[in-house]
Design goal:
By secondary structure, the protein is α+β, with helices and mostly antiparallel strands. It has 3 helices and 10 strands.
Length: 226
């Protein structure tokens, strides 16, 4: 593994990037192949298909357990948590064409206002030019959404950018960092950090995990000492 600690934004928010994480991204991709086709969740927030990994998915569940175990040292070191619980793990693919996006899907989002809620994103089969970008909301200056500022964020978030997936900065959001998608790269970041996928308009929006943009997505809840 090749770990790197980056910091983004005025708040110097930690983002961990680990290359060659599993040692065999294609083997993990084969686990996703075995669970396809994935349910379509585009009516929710995620613009694509997603298959939640459960205990009954023995091989994929073993991958989830291994990922949590191997990532634990990096989570503890960068985010000051003593332990964590897995909230959910899934295989995901962006399949919605830019013209099909609902307004909330065109803007950066956050996963939780909890300060120790973390996202782990494992790039598996990913096209060149894709990745994950991090943002600051221009009207409010918010980079991380908390219980204290969520109302301000939501009020300003009614200003939605134009059609398609957000790319770089615009009138309403300033990009403060980005991670390129590389096969077998794991990215760990706070779930309350504003973020969005980097999705080129000419990407293959396939729901076949052997063709489209395949990632594994984990959410964990950290526990800090008193």
């Amino acid at each position: 593994m090749k770990p790197e600690l980056r910091r983004v934004g005025n708040e110097r928010i930690p983002v961990v990037v680990i290359d060659d994480f599993s040692g065999d991204a294609e083997a993990v991709g084969a686990l996703a192949d075995a669970l396809a086709p994935f349910p379509d969740v585009r009516r929710g927030y995620y613009p694509g298909v997603r298959r939640v990994i459960g205990r009954a998915d023995a091989d994929a569940d073993a991958y989830v357990e291994r990922t949590c175990r191997d990532a634990a040292q990096f989570i503890a070191g960068a985010f000051d948590v003593e332990s964590f619980d897995l909230v959910e793990a899934s295989f995901s693919m962006v399949t919605a064409q830019p013209s099909q996006l609902r307004p909330p899907q065109r803007a950066p989002h956050f996963d939780s206002t909890e300060p120790a809620y973390l996202a782990l994103l494992h790039y598996l089969r990913v096209p060149a030019g894709t990745g994950t970008a991090f943002y600051r909301q221009r009207p409010t200056g918010i980079e991380q959404v908390s219980d204290a500022n969520v109302d301000r964020f939501v009020a300003a978030a009614r200003l939605v950018p134009g059609e398609g997936y957000i790319r770089g900065s615009n009138e309403y959001y300033e990009q403060i960092g980005a991670v390129e998608a590389v096969p077998d790269r794991l990215v760990i970041y706070p779930g309350n950090l504003l973020h969005s996928g980097i999705i080129p308009p000419d990407m293959a929006f396939s729901d076949d995990p052997r063709v489209g943009r395949l990632t594994a997505n984990f959410f964990v809840r950290g526990h800090r000492g008193q």
